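Protein: LysR family transcriptional regulator
Species: Flexivirga endophytica
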Amino acid sequence: MIDAAGLRVIKAISDHGSFTAAAASLGYSQPAISQMVRRLEDRTGTVLVERLGRSVRLTEAGQVLARHANPVLAALDAAESEVAAIAGLRAGRVRLMAFPSSSSTLVPRALSLVKKRFPDVEVSFTEAEPPESLAALRSGECDVAVAFAYEGTDLARGEEDLDAFVTRKLLDDEVRLALPLNHPKAKSKKVKLADLAGEPWIAGCPRCRGHLLSLAERAGFNPDVAFETEDYVAVLGLVSEGLGVALIPDLIRRSAGNTGVVTLPMDPASRRSVYAVTTPDLQRVPAVSATLDALCEAARTKSLCS
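Structure follows.
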């Protein structure tokens, strides 16, 4: 009912005592001021300005508006300044969620790029596997999710409707076999999964375990999963002690190496695709867009961002 322009006009009339002086202070014509006052009076349903020949004075209702104008207009000006700062990347906040094996390689590089280029933009980071991060994105609990999908599966795996999201592919991450150094296949150039059918296996996150079961089924065996942990440092420790073999993504291999473990390509090769995911509206927010660009640049050392 009451707009900011109308409040500014009432305040100017209160300060200057006439339509003409109010118009001059605001850069409007005198007829424009008269029209804005009439429109505001129509909206409020009462007289706001009493015309007295060449001079005017505010009615009681007009004085109420004038009294409230200062704090209201000050708050609006402050809001405009903050929005302008966000739009100009002089401020802003981005809530990033990413799966654990990206948090030691891809994510730190991206956060460093944002910090260097836009020091006033704040990026918070939480670890979460794809089902949780995509659900958080949908519910408004995060702004960008870094998620992955193994070959032959979609990113949401039926758990979320991807039509509501915007995805940017960051890289393809090869999945390798982790074997103890003294394993008979440790010096092979490539290893078929079926050659390890009789080994005890160490499984990771639910999606990773599902990928292992899918690959094993195609290779004609049901793996004996002896240990389960989502901590890849623990996975490599178990492998190095000869307690089993495991599937290890390249992102982990490069950041959490273990001298007691050898990692070998599979025959045939296996990969997972890594994506940055947001919503159509959020991708237009400057700080979110800058974070997406940083993730792409961080990933570009291995794969083109598309």
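Remarks: The longest strand covers residues 166-180.
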